[in-house]
Amino acid sequence: MPRRLWHRLLIGNIVLIVAVLAGLAIWQAYSFERGFSAYLDTIAVEQAEAAARRLEQAYDSEGSWTFLQRDDGRFGALVGGRDGTERPQQPRHASESISPRSTAPMSNLDAPINRPPRDERDRFGEPPPRPTPEMATPGAAGRPDQPVGPTPWTRLRLLDADRQQVAGLPPQHEVLVELALTHQGQIVGYLQVPRVRTLSLGPEQTFSKLQTHGLLVALLVSVLIAVGVSVWLARNLTRPLRALQAGIEQFQTDALPVRLPIDRRDELGTLAQRFNAMTQALHDMQQERERWTRDIAHELRTPVAILQAEIQAMVDGIRPATPEQLLQLQSECRRLSRLAEDLSLLDLHQGQGFACEPEEIDFATIVQAGVNRFRNRLLAQGLNVSCTPLPSAPLYGDPERLGQVLDNVLENALRYTDPPGEVRIGMACDADHVVLSIEDSAPSVPDAALPHLFDRLYRVEASRGRSLAGSGLGLSIAASIVAAHDGQISALHSPLGGLHIRVQLPLNRVSS
To answer: Which of 51, 120, 307, 342 has its CA 20 to 30 A from that of 393?
Structure first.
């Protein structure tokens, strides 16, 4: 089964859209993770600055870090702000050391914080122990493999002045920032903040999963919408092509002009318009070829029939083989030979014009020579010939072909002008062109016939005697020769009552 174009368009669009959306989703997830991690790092640094102030205050009160080594839960309470000792301070940059501050005595650091009265403790029992950093590690007692809660400070690490660990977790990540802790202008320790590489805390992970889930849902919905739009677009684009295919099949079957509906203004609409014009042109060409064949058969049938009848009459003894009868047969043979030559000439140069050998000539000389050739024949037919003075008309052209134009036009006047009559030849020049006019007297030509006089095998009156009527190719050949010289030929009504043939040729231009 051959692949259809709309299938290819659909698959191509789907692959492209899925690739773009998948790339966008990957980039969005990557950007979200980096941005959210940076946000958590910022929060961790701000919280670490506050924790650093509390640790400095505790060091001012205790004088060393040994109190943290005795009570691991104290470190978590200090950095988590659960001992009530934090003072409102302006945040500081990570690169700045924390200088000593004048604060209240820290003698109450060891006291229980926010504890209920004794009788309440006796009533409800001792409160649960404070969370220690060890409880946040995987595998610690209590809740294995789970963090204590969303407390970024559980990842902090405290070092003494010799960079020996005092409290906190061993470093598991790259250190984001290190805050120096001071006492009376001396550095007494360092508080390290790790860089968050993965979202390890419960709320952060939940938020990240929700974002990822929403992104996947949006991606799926976008793909479904894109597939629907792609199906509609692919079928809509290929619908004119399917109509074109059906039109071609119909034209091959019926050989009649096919009219495709033109309801678009894009390239496909232009294609349908060109197809309609092509089928109409092919149909007209086929009809012209059939008419041309019929006309040729008709033209050949008449002289052949005359020859056959005359010869058969001589064979049967009806007519004697006199010189007059033989001359009549010779005339019919010449007419048949001329018709075959004209047909061959038109067929040879159809669609590409006559092959000419141009040279620099004076068109007035060609016209004068043609008039001289036909003068005696015209006078013998009872037609008066008048030729106005011919101005010099230098141009580039084939003298033999241009002489053939003049011969065909004068031959047409000789055959169809009633005696007594007149044939008038005139020529005029302007800056760019020379115009030759050949006019004859009655009979005239109907208005409807004027545009068809240069068609092949066309005659105004089919009832004229065959002895006078020509082949109907003379003016058609003349028009082809004039077109080969980049000129124009036209037929008009003559003031003398007959036909006026007007030939216009360019001066000083090489013919095509």
So the answer is: 342
